[in-house]
Amino acid sequence: MPSSTKYLIGLLLTISVFTQGQDPQFSQFYANQLYLAPSFAGATEDYRVALNWRNQWPSIPGVFHTYSFSFDKAVPNFNSGIGILATHDVAGSGDLSTTNLGLLYSYDIQLNDEWHIRPGVNFKFVYLGLDLMKLTWNSQITTGGTLPPITPPPFDNVADIDFAVSGLAYNDKIWGGFTVDHLLRPRTSFWGNNSSVPIKVDFFGGFQLISRGRLRKKLTEVMSIAANVTFQGDFYQSDIGLYYFKHPLVFGVWYRGIPFATAKDVSSQAGDAIIGMIGIKTDDLNIGLSYDFTVSNLITSTGGAYEISLIYSFTSEQVKRGQKIHAIPCPEF
Predict the structure, then answer these.
(1) Exposed, middle or buried: residue 211 (CB in 10 Å: 0-12, 13-18, 19+)?
(2) Fold of 3-320
(3) What CA–CA distance (Å, rounded) separates 102 from 111?
(4) What is the pLDDT of residues 220-252, one digit of tens each?
(5) Three-class DSSP category at 169
(6) What is the separation of C-alpha 77 from the centre of its chain, rounded to a whole number of angstroms?
(7) Where are the domains of the chain?
(8) What is the pTM of this model?
(9) Cα 23–26–32 angle (5° rounding)?
(10) Where on the phi/psi map is residue 42: left (φ > 0), alpha (ψ -120 to 50), or beta?
(11) N or C: which end of the chain has fewer CB within 10 A?
């Protein structure tokens, strides 16, 4: 790679420290339900452990990886759910990283025989890090070095706290909800600036077009339409797609673009990617693999994005005793 390219990447990464960033977005947003909304904590018939990994734009130098781990369980005696969520995002050649550790709680309210609403909260610890030794400076790439040499300014890694709230309404066929994240606006500057993470708002929902058959009290064929719209600072996008499950296989395809976009909003096209997904869903284990096919002007530059999800569930004592838990009908990928 030419040295000028390395310098440009390092410069862009350094500049990004002073700017307001956006959160990583998972294509398989229902395979990482606690990341989507704390209302999903414990919204399952079983204990649940989820692992998620996303490789964003592999053709661009530098890493753009996001990792996520979550654990949640239902507490039906209190109409509640609890969970933990850890995410780690690494971007660029300087290993600019963001780590979040959260405690989640949700409460299920039964309005009538058909409808439930489920508020949720997420208390988070946020840690922001950067490895300056991995950046490339002028003195490293110019002939004979730069006089005087450029020395990185001193800085401290950033630790802060954050808070998110969400709400969810659902019945046996339909679900919809919202999440408001970064209510405490955690800091993002290493050098004492006032930069902070902008508030993020998600609106999500969907409904089942087909639901057939039973296998050990679970559906064996389901077709669902689902959507997620995200707003954060000047950034906004929508994902809408179709999921089809025929035991034990799951297929999905959806479109990511900018909602309500006009010619003034984008240079040439509102579309960002077409996402395809295939997975296996059993009683205990769900595995999903998806790929983002870029359709924007970056089609020849990014290499798309890969995403893998792994969800393992095991039966709780309440379920073993036959206690009924109201599961949300949204897809698990």
Answers:
(1) middle
(2) Porin (2.40.160)
(3) 29
(4) 899 999 999 999 988 888 999 999 999 999 999
(5) strand
(6) 30
(7) 3-320
(8) 0.85
(9) 105
(10) left
(11) N
